[in-house]
Every structure is written in structure tokens, then in C-alpha cells.
Amino acid sequence: MHSRRSFISKGLMAAGAAIIASPFDCLISGCAPFAAKKIRIKRVSSDFEREPLIRPFGFKGGFMTEIWQSASYLESDSGNHSIGLCTQSVLWSDAKVFESHSESGGNALMYAMTERAMQILKSQQYISPVELLDHLYTEIYDYGKRITSNPDLRKTFALNALVGVDNAVWLLYAKENGISTFDELIPEAYRPALSYRHDKVAGIPLMAYTIPIDEIKSAVDEGYFFMKIKIGQPGTQEEMLEKDKARLTEIHKAIGNVRTEYTADGRLPYYFDANGRYEEKETLLRLLDHARSIGAFDQIAIIEEPFPEEAEIDVSDIPVRLASDESAHTVEDAVERIEMGYKAIALKAIAKTLSMTMKIAQAAHERNVPCFCADLTVNPVLVEWNKNVAARLASFPGIGNLGLVESNGHQNYRNWSTMLGYHPRKDASWVNVKRGVYELSKEFYRTGGGIFDPMPHYEAMFKA
């Protein structure tokens, strides 16, 4: 069940309600609906933890063995403080940086950008988190180009580095202005796109190259019905295509006849993610021809990011719904992709910052392009940030009245159960998937899933 509803504005400026007196000194203007407090950041700090994976995690033709979790600490003049978390994914955000450095080296570069952002924020003042992120992003992106020696650094690399910083800015804003729910946190300008309240959100697991077919079948048996499957396997374009055709055949043979209550036609939807591995449109069309030949074509709900971003291929004539993910770095990029024929946007509040994600969601909403939330193999706390967005998006075409959120951390982290212990509401009913869906209660909406709560594990990192 879901419903549209109006928001009672307790206090968040509409986007654009602030003007900038200096790059990081956000001053209020007369168009703000309430007198938001000007916040001065007195102290900053950051730290990180390295989390090993169960097995090498493959996509974009590469493999990760660990994922760094960074934490950003902010304290205001009033004594309030906040901690924002970030899961780093160098391979996802810029495969060239991943390839040209050791795995730890690439992570260190991204973390250096996070630390740089924290130092910039020290002693700065802000009112609007969105405006602050806009200006911080520009400087951090330029800094990233310098330290990676890559003038063509992908914008998502900088945005990924800023996720924890942005979350900390929003949480400090909430404390300073007496905000305690996610609904109140959403600026007026972006509320049309985030105006639903689903009581269920589908949990989307990820099936990477190396996941056996038996595990995919087991996931379906557990109740999962909307799964993300990696295609675009390593090798030449011809080798990749043959591997992907064989993989699709195996998957369809294993689960093609399974039925679900959550889709309009009762069949399982297929969600494929190529991460830009298909270099030409003709190659993708050959995969679709194969899908037709085995009876799987009509079940393809989404193919995400099939082509390299720089190819700028018009996709309006491709007969399946294509979704843009990492190529929709910013709101401007998302609009460009929509104009190129992309018919869905994969939102990533946990990879491109909440501030940028709300802008992208609104731009897509205004163009009648559906959105859903994709994962970055994030930690359990960040899953709640993503879930808060997914719960408020319109239902995806062909799917029942529920949101969509990918969450694959439980499949990939060696210490997932330990990480789950860091969640301030780890025992809440909405934390774990039940028969393929997250069940969202009134308590979830009242608490934002726990994102406003103290996090003792991360607090301990900054005791000194």
C-alpha cells in the first residue's frame, strides 16, 4: 500500500533558497520558508575501516577483495556533532583509477579526498546542505583530478568520496534545526519526487559473475523476486557476448517459470547490469535476439548502463528499458541520459550523496522517468539511507505497490553480522529482508530507519 501525501514543513529551505557569500559561507535569503539556523563547524575528523569480502567481487571486468568504510565527524559551535558514513567503491566510480593503482592505493586516493573535504569544512558556516555540497563538490573534484593525475576523472569518484561528508552535514543540520524524520529533511523543491510511503520495499540481491546458478535458485526459493545480475563478463566483446548468452540461458532455465505476486504478469523480472561493457549497440541487440530465442525477452525489466559513458549512444530505439547509473553523475548528466532515450534512473544516495540524489530524482520525476535505488555493497547503516529514498519513490512500472532497493552487503562482506551490530536499531523489524521484501512500519518512518540515532561503534572512533 502506498499513498501520496502533503508534507507539513517544519523547516527546510527549498533548493535555491540560499545565496552564497563565499564558496562555503551559505547565507539565508528572503525566500526561505523558515529561519534555518546558520551552522558553524568547529571541529572535524575522519577515519576508516577495511572490510574484507567473502570472495573476489567481480564487475566492470575487475575484482575487489575489500571495501573501505570511512566515517566523517563534524561538530558545531553549539556542541552538537554528527557522524556520516561512506562505503568506498573505486572500481565502480572510476575503473581507470582502480586499474592504474593497487587496490589499497585507489582506496587511499578516495579517502584523501574525503579528508580534504573535512579540512575545507573546518571553521566554515552553512545553512543549506544542498548548497554546501554543490560548492564542496567542485573543489574536491578538481583536487581528485590532481592527486590521481587523471584530468578525465569520473565525477562519481568525487561524489563517492563525499557521501559520508554530505550525510554528516545533513545530520548536523537536523540536530541544529530540531528535525527528527527523513520527511522533514527533504527540501520543498524535491518533495514531489519523494512523496510516497510504501509499506514494503523489494530487496534486490546482486548476482555477480561468479555466483553459481544454484545460489540464484536458492535466492528465489527464499522469496527474492527481483534480482540484479551482472553481465558484461571479462574478455573480448565476442567472448563477453557468448558468456553472457550462456549465463542468460542458464538463469532462464533455472528460474524462468517461477511465479511471483509482485509483478503485473506474475513472472520474475530480469534486471541486468553491464557496467558499460558493451561497446556497440549491435552487440547488445544480439544479446536481446538471444533472449527472444530462449523465451526470456519479455521478462527483461531493466538493462542498466550497457554502454561506455563516453560513447554517448542514442538508445531510444532499443526495445527494452535501459537505466542509467554511474553515467548519471549529476542532475545535468541524468537529464542528458534521459534525452538519449534512457527510460529509468538508478539512484544512489549512498554513492552520489543524498544532496545530488534528490536533485536527480526530481529531474526524472518531472520527465516521467521512473527511479529505483541501487546499492554500492554498502554497510547496514547506509542501507537505511538508501531505503529511505526507495520507500518514497513511485512504484516501478510493472511492479506492485512497493519500492525497489538493491542491498547485497550480506552476500559479500565476510563480517556482515559484525557490521550489522553497528546498526543502532539492528533488531528492528525493517532491518532484514523477509521473503524478498523489507517491511516498513510506522516506526521506520518515525525514526528514519535509525539514521538519526547515535552509533556507539562509530562514536568510539572519535572519542579522543
Would you give an account of this structure?
This protein has helices at residues 90-93, 95-100, 103-121, 129-148, 155-161, 163-176, 182-185, 213-221, 237-255, 281-293, 331-339, 354-366, 380-390, 409-412, 416-420, 442-447, 456-459, and strands at residues 18-22, 25-28, 39-59, 62-76, 81-87, 125-126, 200-204, 206-207, 227-230, 270-273, 300-304, 322-324, 344-347, 371-373, 403-406, 437-439. With 464 residues, the protein is of the alpha/beta class. Strands 8-9-10-11-12-13-14 form a 7-stranded parallel beta sheet. It has a 4-stranded antiparallel beta sheet with strand order 5-4-3-6. It is globular, with a radius of gyration of 21 Å. The chain starts with 17 loop residues before the first strand and ends in a 5-residue tail after the last helix.
